Structures are given as structure tokens and as C-alpha cells.
Amino acid sequence: MDNHIYGIRPLIEAIEKGDIPEKVLIQKGLQGENYLRLFSMVRKLKIPFQQVPIEKLNRVAKKNHQGIVAFLPVIEYGSLEVLLPDVFNSGGLPLLVILDGITDVRNLGAIARSAECAGAHAIVIPTKGGAAVNADAMKTSAGALSRISVCREESILQAIAFIQECGIRVIACDEKGSVPVYNASLTGPVALVVGAEDKGISPAVRKMSDQVVSIPMKGRIASLNVSVATGIILFETLRQRNVNIQ
Questions:
Q1: Cβ burial, residue 71 (10 Å; 0-12/13-18/19+)
Q2: Which structural domain range is residue 29 located in?
Q3: Do both 42 and 131 map to the same domain?
Q4: 173, 237 contact by CB (below 8 A)
Q5: Which of 22, 56, 70, 145 is the most exposed, having the fewest neighbouring CB atoms within 10 Å of its CB?
Q6: Is the sign of the CA dihedral 187, 188, 189, 193 positive or negative?
Q7: pLDDT tens digits for range 57-70
């Protein structure tokens, strides 16, 4: 199914009936009364947008775009404020995966697949600056993105603060971590943070985390692919718990 909206008026009508896009591409230099109305709506609703050359729109669009291409969500996003009380009330032991700076949709999909297989309750992603949950991510996840809750938060730092207030330890996973993951305690409620391959965990997230762990390695290559590393840590969590996650 095509999750794009093409054109100014169709996007205005979609927004008015509650179909809020994840992102809007706008042709540079676009003008006119309807465009100004649309742009005001986009800014008011804080919809991420990018002004691009017409050539980029021509590559993306399958139809006459009239200078506008919008991307609709392919899943329904969850909320930490709703999810976590439900997990606690059901007697579950929270297990979350927080993505800090992951921009590759294939890594997002692979992480979602591992997280769903490990019984994680949710993946937490940023509203801006992260990989999009698109068709490629869905395909790589083998359907996991349709089965696991994906909580999209305005600020990863604020999300971490809320998670910690709920009594959940935040464990950052980084090759520079001083504690081997096999020596860390993962038996209680935990949220695992993984970062981008090029930069790793951001300094602000590292500072907020309760602990920073690493995966011991013997080879010459400095790091693992982030989705592989996430899978290792998720299943180490299951090994330590030795129970089925509810």
C-alpha cells in the first residue's frame, strides 16, 4: 500500500481529518495561498519537513506531486505513558530497547526483529533524527514492527528520565563501556540503549544512563553491527532472567 500523499490540497485534507504525516518534502521556492496555509499547518503541528529540489521529489513521487510529498506512518505508534503502567499492572518485567541515533532503516528493522523475539515490550525512537519506520524497515523486521510497540518520543533524554522515574534501570550499550555485559545485572526492569555505529551512545545519554556495558570481543575488528550487538544483549538479558517475558 502506498503510504505517500502527493499535492498541497490532498495533504491539507488529510491533515484536517487527522492523518498526520511523519515527514513532508516541500519543493524549494513553492508559493501560493494554499501552500502558505499548508505550511502554517505543518509548522503548527510540528510535522518534520524538508525543503528540497524538484529533482528529489521527482525521484520519490510515483504521481504528480505538485511540489509536495508527504509520508504517512505505516504503523500505529505507542506511548510510554500508556505502555509502562499496562506492563506493571499485568505483572510483566519491563524490557525496553531505546534507539539513540540509529538512522539506518535496516538496522531498525533488524533490532525490532531481535527485540520482538526476545519478548521486549517496546522500542523507543525519537520523533526526529532517527530511522523511519518505512516499508524497508518493515521488510527487514520480518513483520516484527507490526507486533512490538514502537514508542516515538519528542526527546530521548526526557523519555529516559520518565523511564527511570518508573523504576526502570537504563543500561547503555557501548564498546567503551567499562562493565562487560555478562557481569551486569539485567534481572530487574531494564531499558537497553543502543547507539549509532559511527558515534555510539551520545554523551548526554551516556551521562544519564545508570550503567554503561560492553560486549567482550577477541577479534581485531573494533565493533559489531548495532543490530547484532543488540541481539546479544537482549538474549543475555533473557539468559539471566531465565523466565519467559510476559
A1: middle
A2: 4-71
A3: no
A4: no
A5: 56
A6: negative
A7: 998 887 789 899 99
